[in-house]
Write a structure and sequence with these properties.
The chain contains no helices and eleven strands. The protein has about 110 residues and is mainly beta.
Length: about 110
């Protein structure tokens, strides 16, 4: 069975850092484009960052310069390093894997307090 399992969320003060991880199983990981998305109540899920199989990255303007997406194919894991966190970064962060099909993880809560 295909699974994406996020971890690393939590409560942090504004200006702090978190590193999210997404471990994939049930797929051959390396060809997939991996992504991070976030969602808050009452708003559409939005793209945060993606990384292609070749390592090309893409970021939402709101997180450029603060967040870094990376992947370790040997560990079937994608990461999101989040620095200089802002209150508006609060939300549930979801991992996504895309090739011929699309898979989603269950999400991990990130709460940034002032």
């Amino acid at each position: 069975q295909v699974q994406l399992v996020e971890s690393g969320g939590g409560l942090v003060q504004a200006g702090g850092s978190l590193r999210l991880s997404c471990a994939a199983s049930g797929i051959i990981f390396s060809p997939y484009t991996m992504g991070w998305y976030r969602q808050v109540p009452g708003k559409q899920r939005e793209l945060v960052a993606t990384i292609s199989s070749g390592g090309t990255t893409n970021y939402a303007d709101s997180v450029k310069g603060r967040f870094t997406i990376s992947r370790d194919n040997a560990k079937n894991t994608v990461y999101l390093q989040m620095n200089s966190l802002k209150v508006e970064d609060t939300g549930v962060y979801f991992c996504n894997a895309r090739l011929a099909g699309i898979y989603w993880g269950q999400g991990t809560q990130v709460t940034v307090s002032s």
